[in-house]
## 1
Amino acid sequence: QITTLINHKDKPKRSDKTLQAIQRVGQAVNLAVGRFVTVGEAIANENHELKEEMSVACIEARRAGETIAQLTDVASLDHPESDSHITIFTDKTGVVKAARLLLSSVTKVLVLADRIVIKQIITSRNKVLATMEQLEKVSSFQEFVQIFSQFGNEMVEFAHLTGDRQNDLKDEKKKARMAASRAVLEKCTMMLLTASKTCLRHPDCESARINKDGVFHRMRLALEQVIEIVTDSRPNGENEMVPISIYSGIKEFKNKVEGLRENLYFLSKENLSTMLEVILEHTEDFTDSAYTSHEHREHILELSKQAKMELEQLVSVWMQAQNQKTKDLMEDLEVAILKTCQCMNELKREVHSAATSLAAELLKYHMDHMVLKALKITGVEGNLEAVAEYTCKLSEQKEQLVEMCRLLRHVSGTEPLEITCIHAEDTFQVTGPQIISAAETLALHPSSKIAKENLEVFCEAWESQLSDMSMLLREINDVFEGRRGEKRVYLSLPRPGKHNANLKALKPVKLDTEEQAKIAKLGLELHLLTSDVDSETEKWEDQENEIVQHGQGMSSMAYSMYLFTRGEGLLKTTQDLFHQAEIFATEGTKLASALHAFSDQVHYDDKSLLLLEAEKLISVCKQLQITAKASVQGKSATFTKVDACILKTRNVMTLLCQLLPLCCKLLRKNKAGNGCLKPAPPWREDRIRTGTNVHTPERRAETFGIKSLENHVTNMTFLESK
């Protein structure tokens, strides 16, 4: 909105609509700043150590917002008495200064708020650690129950704080690491409960003590990693060393090789040779592995040898081309580049096949959990000899699965999946010995119900990780085959060539500067409508309501279409926009269906009104769909279609702005839900909802195991009675 104000073109003739649009933008900015500052002031009141800094930043922001509102108060310009009134037209530098002050002060507020959030997470972690120390030293069962109840509540708080932080992280790698650490904490909470109970019931049992110590140690490591991610630092200032995978090595190597087409001098032959050596060293993880088939091993060795030969040929032609740029030499260089890249692609395909075929085979073989079942049976029987035999088999299985994770990491294709492989490897590495110590404890105390329960918990963790590996394998294959990997920010990202038979006939084009200027006003109106819709959806208490979800999804897509009118965002071409418009219209039709279902819950008098509005929505969505699917040719016709799509999207959003408050009112009136309007929550709970895909995996990534943790705490009363 600020950018729109600053970039607007001064024209001698100003229509009433232009003046009203400018005034609306100024008011919208001021209102948004007011809401933002109110939250900032609430934060300041709760955190006295930063109160002064935060208050100053909030005052600056509020002042800048009011200045922008004053300078854009241009509706009265046509009246003579307003000639002396300073506006954006008479003092554009004033708007620029106010905008700079606003952005500066808003940034200060965000940075200060972020410091507070980090402090909250650290404080929460410290409370958890302190309670863990008490749990480790506890000697009576009754005391343990009381302290564990407190520990459970603290873990729930930590789960909420870190869950919010995980959702806010922009770095996918950090997000994956945070998810892995929080998964460890979730599983270990139940393990800590049963392992501690077993130790209290059998205080002289060495295997029970080892089992419990392992859980505490793993939880401390996970807590430490969360703080490293949150504070973006490591102990002693050391850098995190993540081993390079074969995939990432090949990708970088190919980029350098292909870069020779543009510049023959940007790197040395020694650099390329070193990069290939590192890749081939990593392939030894496959060729040296006892679990790699003979066929795969031979193919990898052959391709490694071929890669060296292709690089030698490439370097030879490259060096000649540096001295003499003839047409023949440049053609030879192109052939050498293609052959080298093709060889690396074949190597990548071979290691992928080796890793995934091994993983599929192992997961299928171990999915019956025969070793775990045998350990449970022989443990209850108190058969120490049989338990020792099956623990050896479990150790072998662990080694196989650890090796599988190492090989899969090399071919995972993305950094988040690499981190997931590393996490899986650690889980098998740690959980294996813990199952063994739990089984030994049960074998020594075969009648102990708590020892049996403890072994069950660790076996469940193992089975759960095996199940996760099946999902991980599918994701790795999806990335390799190009079905996954692109980041989806909005409800639907158009992918040209799919979904629409007409797309092949269309040449994907972008709007030029003149076209962007023509459509800017319509785009701005669309932007203001998305703000209105977002404000309406925030008023609903039940954010999972189907009507709210469709409304949020439509607002998100409309915003991406607004960004397109500015030449920004993820919709790069007119073809992208048309496909987005189709999906937007489909989502509107789904909303209309939800309104029909909702109409059955309201009084008869209200039902007819709601159905009438739903029919209007269906009608405008159909119009938009027809427009988006219409085939056009030529620059002028394409722009006309773009204009029509944005206009019809605006019409849908205008109707949506009327529908949402109506539904909210009817819901409240009929008391069909738990209430509609939210009370003003504390700032920590007032999470700003972003325009992300309401159906994406990110949406499902809620705070870790909070329900299960709360169940642990609730069950403490029953536990104490036992």
## 2
Amino acid sequence: MGMSAEDERAASPRDEEWPEAEKAEKLARGAALKWASGVFYRPEKLEGLGHYRRRETQRNSSIQSRLKSTVQSYLEGVSAGLEQLRSAAQEVQSVCQDLGAARWALLDSADQFQGLQQMRKLMEEHVQLASVVQVLPQIFSVHEVFSHILQLLHGQQLLEAHVELMMVEQLRDDILSQLHLRGLSSAQATVLSYFSGLQDLNESLAKQLWDIVGSSLRLVREDPVLFVTAVRIIEREEKIDDSLLLEATFLPPGRPKGWRQKFYQVLQDTITGARFHAPRMDAEGPGLAKHLAALQKDIVSELCVVKDLMVPCVPARYNILSVCTATYHQALTSHLQEILREDLDKQGLFLLLEWALHVYHSPEMLGHPDLLPEVDVSALDPLMSSELVDQTERRYVMKVKASVFEWMQRTLEVEFKEWFREEEPETDHQGFFQSALPAIVMQMLNENIQVASLITDSLQQKIYNMALEELEAFLGRLREALVQCGKEHQQDRAVPKHYISHLLAVLNNNLALSNSVSSLHPDTTCREVPASLQGALDRIQKKATQLLLEELLLDLQPLCLQLPSRKWLSGSQLVGSMCEVIDKYAKDFSRVRKPLFMLLLAESELLVANQYLRALLQRKMVCKSREERGQLCHRLLQDATQLRELFCGLGLERSQQSLEAVFALRELICLKDPALLSLEVLGFATKYPDVSDEHISTLLDIRGDVSKEVRHVVLEMMAQHPQDLPEGYRPIFSTILVPVQELPFCLRKGKCA
């Protein structure tokens, strides 16, 4: 079954050329050997070897016969193909010979072709001459047509005139186009001069068209035929422009006319010229209000005419209602800016803001039911930009500020004059003194804030801030007026006649203002009063209280000058007289509201306690014996008790009274053992931390029995235990200045300590 040497030599070149074939053959042989060894491995299987050999021989013979048949059919096909190629090559050679012969024939006929070219040119010229002959009658009648067109225009037969005008233009354009193709520019100039009348006719027609468009709002109401005619002519011209622009080979003179754009421009100029280029009107409130009202009425009316009557007369693509709306909008924007360049008063500025921000978009104007839904207000830009609105609001605030200042100043002048009248100030239903000042001021401020709220929240906030600033400044001027009134009263206590009553009215007015300020805030949930304004209110209250206490002091001082004295020690009615003065003032103080009454009562009590202590410490005396100290302590107890009971009866509780300092001072004087003074003084200084070493030294002098050593111990202990003023402490001793050492006042004749 192995290969012979010749087979190996024959296969070697193929194997070298196809190494994959050699590998495949080896694999096949290996597979066959493996199969044969597996089949004939057993001896009993060798009996079928001859049968297997015959079967394989038959199969090989069948395969070889099929291969021979296949190769034979392939060879027959290749033979047929070669025969067809041979036949095709012969036909190609024949065609090449025919083409060569045709080429020589064409070369021989070149002269004849040149003659045909000349004949073609003559033919074209003949055709052109025939065309010229056909249009000669039209060319000769051009000027007659011009005259007829002019007559039609004078008779407002615009459509007929435009038809003939288009025919003449078409004739001219055809001639110019032919000349343009032949490059005969000189001939073009001649044609243009011959048709020069076309320009005048176009201008005449255009003038009538624009006059009609300019009167379109009137015409569509009275007789829309002329307006529709104008629109049809404009549409024709627009189509001619579009077709010429699309061809882009030759553009006749005067093209494109652009009459549609001119239509928009004339319509827009008509709108803006009729309403917004009028002579300068009165820029103040009444004149401006009438002007804006007229604009509002006319614009709504004209837009309704456009929507209902003009829109059906023009193609939908014109968007004539949107164009007119945008034109009015732009014209109004510019017009308002021109008005704002004037020096408008506050009423004028308010009218402009209200009109631009509220009326313009409301159902009274562009949101009118007759204009909806075709007019879309939301698609328009704001009539006034945010920057212009802010600028106008600031101008308005400045105008209002000047007006508020003027009114407040006038109110203050009236109030100041009221202080010097012979009558008491008016009272409310509870008998409290008051004047009209708080009501006037708050009404003025509140009205301006409420009016501003009709425009924007930002304007309301600006007016609110301005109102607080002006109120604060007004309170400052009111305080200055109080100071001036107090100075005049110091020169003559009879002027004003009802000085105390008017001061009490000022306090009530100030309280009313303080309670009303929070109501001015735009946000009802915010009731906080700015610190600077509250400070101004507090300064008014403090000044009026000070002037009232000065009056009380002037009446108390003559009595306090008698302290201490022998008459006082002997049990005179000095403190009783003081109580009468205090009670009189308390009755006057009852004409203010309770918080103010309690304040005046507390301040009066502090003043009385201060003056009483001042008299004791500044006009100090020295007790010569225990009996004298007892007499002094008894008088101090009676006076302090009487004064305390008075103020308690008026409604001031003991815990709020400063007269307790007199009781404490009395305890220091009544102390029997001077050695205990250091502890008592320390307790006194702890309770009244504003007491100084000088005050304590004066008290020790009044006792008259304190040695230098005890004095030194007391003052040393005070130095070792300095006291800080607690928060909310009302000073009593810090305002009492102790005089320099002088000869002490003695209770009776004898040698003084």
## 3
Amino acid sequence: MWLLGLPWALALLVAVASSGPSADAPDRASIFADLSPAELRAVRTFLMERPELGLSPSQGGPLAKNSLFLVELLPPKKRRALRFLERGGARPPREARAVVFFGAQAEPNITELAVGPLPRPSSYRPLAFKGGRAVPFSARPMTLLEYELLHRALVAAVAPLEPLLLEATGFGFQNCSERCLTFSDIAPRGLRSGERRTWLVIQRFVEGYFLHPVGLEVLLDHRDPDPRRWTVQRLWYNGRHFGSVRELAQSHARGTLALALLPEPPARRLFSSYEPRGRFAGGTATEAHGAKVCEPQGRRYRLRGNRLEYGGWSLAFRLRSSAGLQLFDVRFGGERVAYELSVQEAIAFYGGHSPAAMQTKYMDAGWAMGASSYELARGVDCPETAAFLDAHHLLDADGPVRFPNALCVFELPTGVPLRRHFDSDFQGGFHFYAGLEGRALVLRTTSTVYNYDYIWDFLLYPNGVLEAKVHATGYIHATFYTPEGRRYGSRVHSHLLGNIHTHLVHYKVDLDVAGSGNSFETMDIRFENISNPWSAGARVVQPWLHREPRRREREAALPLGRPAPRDAPAPRLTPPLPGPRYHLAVTQRHENEPSSSSIYTQNDPWDPPVTFENFIRDNETIEDQDLVAWVTVGFLHVPHAEDIPNTATPGNAVGFFLRPFNFFDEDPSVASRAPVIVRPLDPPTCSRLEIRRWTPPSPGPCVHPEPFTYNGTY
């Protein structure tokens, strides 16, 4: 069995089939590798040369055009991949997934294509969503071109408000250079399917502009492919609603408008910046470097292309442009424990008094969170010893774009032993001490989706435990403070409201425990009050394990709306959550259910092409089947002043564990050669000790140079 560890339940996938270990050839993981820059260029060139597609460059030109938006790997079908990985079958053909915006036709739409074989593509075919759903053009993600046109339309539309903005903020849109205004856009873009109306939060363009709203929010309708027909429909300023730009401008001109006068931002030590300010009262000096990670005898992991090996672990990995990290063929001790483990979606839904705040329901796959993998800083984002890897994305661009140092791999001392025991003789000495240092291998990337930064980790432990974890940091999504807004968050600065919001992160876990045929059961703790069998008249209250097989998909869907320990009920949302409505759901695996969300859900959550509820609607059997566990983790964030300038990572991390549960005969970390065992040679005096270890006596010069010593007396 392999345990899926969540903080509120014990969920087991029970192995009912067996498969032996198999050795991987050095290049087998490459069937899951991201497309190379050459492959990305080859796909784009092939599609651009197809006259029937009529593709135009992504940059420039009108919105009403046919353009290539995204190219990324289309993973092979599982059956073909396993035939290649385990039974020496043919290598699966390598294909790309291409997303095409068909805007230059009577009925615009979005079409996905499978393009191959790579590296020299010669054909394409349409990729259909489950049920054959078409994707409307209004559901498309935003592009750089649309943002440029949106900015122009906004600047032109609010020109009559320039006197108001200059008086209240000292910044403007018209002919500005260093004192400019900018905006952040909110999604979903409307109130029903087919709309494309976006609330824009106007901000001063200074460092950390997310924390500098000026009190103006503008609703701009940009559904029409012709920007000349875009219109401002409503405005909100300092707590009041206005039906037009003219109405707001006239209110200001008449002197009946309550202006929100903002102080001049300081030239240095702006509250939204990282510049040091103040001193720790009675604290120690912080000018010196802190503790560092080192590898005194070199790396203990092996990185070959997209194959990562560490201790008993091996896996393939990739960084999807659409949704981020994805692991394949995850093995421990040569046996596959998971075929796929991947990030699916990150959602943040907000409450607030202003229109933008109450409308915000971010679904970050729609913002291509995988392609927001900007450079990791050595020594800050990852230790200096880490191995760094580049990523290449072809997203809303006319060629592949290199993102240097987008991923990192490093071994991390956990700071706590993996296990240890001091065996006292209770006379001032001991029988033995034994301990195994805590280490984990970390695969990391980040997604900076505008204001928020997500740090995505997969951690591999030597005892067969895998942890998936995400930290939330970056700037809070904040709105302009009004007294009415206090019930929706905290006043974190003079004119700033930190809006309450909930983060939900969704993962796909395709577990193959001793083969693909698995079943699912949950274990819960119950209590019994029984007669004491060895003392007449006495009673014993004790826990016992309640095991419940879940035989069909509906039984294996544990909804968010049902409170669990340390969990609060989740409300019904408008629009409804299209994906992660469950703490955990287990379904039969199907090739036409590869993901629980899509890049189109953000801009059409009312009628998305992928709806997770459809995965379990047929209520299929999940006994002795190829199963997928869909896991949702999350936390409530009530912003506070300490979130300025950025939300800190401590206390803002969630995740889950995959743990072996009676799968091995003993803790598999006994194979590690890193333990230390100390035994006294002359008990109970303990003046002479035998110290046994299977690594060199001293790690090396990067830590204390003296060899390991131990006393053990007290």
